[in-house]
Amino acid sequence: MTHIAFMHGNEAAAEGAVAAGCRFYAGYPITPSSEIAEILSGRLPEVGGVFIQMEDEIASMAAIIGASLGGLKSATATSGPGFSLMQENLGFAVMSEIPCVVVNVQRVGPSTGLPTKAAQGDVMQARWGTHGDHPIIALTPSSAQETYHLAVRAFNLAERFRTPVILLMDAIVAQLKEKVEVPDPASLQIVPRAAPSVPPADYKPFPFARGEVGPLAVFGQGYRYHVTGLLHDEHGYPTEDPAVVSAWWEHMATKLDAHLDEILAWEEVQLADADLALVAYGGTARAAAHAVTLARSEGIKLGLLRPITLWPFPEEAVRRLAGQVRGFIVPELNLGQIRYEVERLSAGRVPVEGLHRADGLQITPDQIVSAARAAHARDQA
Amino acid sequence: MTAPAPPTQLQTSFILREYLRPQMLPSTWCPGCGLGIILSSIAQAVHFRGLAKDQVAMVSGIGCTGRMSGYADFNTLHTTHGRAPAFATGLKLARPELTVITVMGDGDAMSIGGNHLVHAMRRNLGLVAVVVNNSVYGLTGGQLSPTTPVGGHTTTARAGSFERPMNLEALARAAGAAFFARATVNHSFGLTKMVERALSGPGFALVEVISNCHVLYGKMNETPEAAGMMMAMDANTVRSNPTLQRRARLPVRLTDAETPAVPAADARPLAGVQTDTRLRRGVIFERRGRVDYSGRYYAQSAPPGDDEAA
Asked: How do the domains of chain A map onto residue ranges?
């Protein structure tokens, strides 16, 4: 049965993970994500799962990959500096197609930065943080309620596409306590770990089926295969054969792109008649949504596009809007990481203005309305 | 966790081929490299312990030793540089019934992965680690390693290394590993027996194997042939006799305060204290029984996939 709870985003992420079937967590304490580890250290043993505090974030990421190969849905949580340390093995999970979930509660960087202050500066790191080209999924919630649902979705997408999924939170959402309707677990759609249906002799752990992934056999169940961070063939054996490498890239490059309709999510707020659009996400989107209401009371037709999947980015939605509105404003707690995307997609058709700050404070609805007023006045002139 | 079941029948015939992946051979290892001997010894230890290949996982890092997991017909995981113990920790907690063997080189285990190794030894989950120590970075072309002896020449220590080499035995003892043994590839029967013993108990069991890299290290240090380097390894190690060593240690039990300050120039070996700098081969220490608390990770219910352990 659905029940009402009062939770902050970190708690919602932890509870959503448990509901999604997460049974292994390895992590290292870091502000402002530590509550996730604290809560799961109690919750996981209650549900037959395992919690371990590792020696660092590198090891945390390694341990969840090992546990996932052992058949447990696995997650870790961290913040900027820890996320930097995880990039090495995040790439390993991409390369070896091992499902896992990484929660990154963003704070102001670079380096130690402002540890207790909210930011959205890891957007591009989530996309390109590990070396080499690669597909990745990053989800970004705007409320505790949405955090719960996106945590469930992150595990589902990880299993469905055999990929690491990043739940990219910010300290605004992570630390804000608010009402959460906790759904009946039976009402949730959960993607279980797919098991191979063929005998071991016929099993290919890494099939290059264009746009599809095969099941990942659990270690110890009769399918002895090789997992490596080296570029490999469908059996997992390392190869340098350009033909095989090309086939591997074909598989990697298409495994998410062929399913964008399944993956992409965004919210549109009063965009139907908008002639000025905000693109905002995470905690900042809350101020943006309020700014839409304020601006409209002044007669400015402002709307909001709120990406929920940051990666892959809802490109078509922005391209379409670029043909409708007379300008974009992108408020974000960084110096313009998603603004670059919006600029790229609007391709010079309409002006794209950034509203950025990375000083640890939040962007207020008034600031956004002021920017909208200025853009509106410019349009009228 | 429960120890692997003892062999139910006498295992007499060992066929190495049954433990290899023929499609991955020939290996990338140089002719005469000790790694083949080590892989064979691990396979024999698994065989004589009566473990099914499906129930064995081999987790390796990066380097020449890292490639071993590709050749062994177990559940194999070739991870990132130095991180093998952390991957193995996650796998072992998820599937405690698996026998998880970690194989690492000296740079992998003691340099980039030093922290992971220390904490894996401290946690004492039922993992076996085989650390292949050839004093040099082989795969990258003969650079300085954390175990390069003082005076040893490498491509990044051309005048000879002046850094103190890592003492894995002391590290294992301090970190709380349950078992530590040292072998050389010259004594493969002993190596097999040590790996067998490492496989037989709870806790973290570490086997250091002194191996030869004549192609890189030997070439720069006057032993360019495998045989010559193996003879040097023989000369630089001595069979351990734990009982005699315990006796020898008994009379000298001084605290720091009681130890007379001796000017370095006047320092003389004390009677009864081992002055032999040769590394000891054999089972160096074993402390079993009270070290493995892995069951505590599963507080409220049985570990996944293991109905017997509570």
From this structure: 3-187, 267-380
- Residue from A274, A266, A371, A364 nearest A314 by CA: A266
pLDDT tens-digit map of A314-333:
999 999 999 999 999 999 99
Q: How far is B114 from chain A (nearest CA, A)?
A: 11
Query: With an 8 Å Cβ cutoff, are A59 and B86 in contact?
Result: yes
Whether B78 sits inside 8 A of A24 (CB atoms) is no
Of residues B292, B308, B289, B285, the one with CA closest to residue B92: B292
Which tens digit of pLDDT belongs to each residue from A295-321? 999 999 999 999 999 999 999 999 999
Which of B51, B77, B104, B108 to mutate to probe the A interface, most A CBs <10 Å? B77
According to CATH, the topology of domain A267-380 is Rossmann fold (3.40.50)
CATH number at residue B28: 3.40.50.970
For domain A3-187, say whether CATH 3.40.50.300 is its number.
Answer: no
Q: How many CA atoms lie within 13 A of A119 on its CB side?
A: 27
- Asked if B21 and A226 come within 8 Å (Cβ–Cβ), the reply is yes
Q: Which residues of B touch A59 (CB under 8 A)?
A: 83, 85-86, 89, 115-116, 119
Asked if residue B273 has pLDDT above 60, the reply is no
Instruction: Please compute the mean of the pLDDT values over residues A63-69 and round it to a whole number.
Output: 98
- Domain around B91: 11-254+275-290
Does the interface ipTM go beyond 0.85? Answer: yes
**pLDDT > 70? residue B3:** no
Q: What pLDDT shows up at residue B261?
A: 54
> What's this model's pTM, rounded to 2 decimal places?
0.93
B309 vs B206: CA distance, rounded Å: 24
Say whether A48 and B119 touch across the interface (CB within 8 A): no
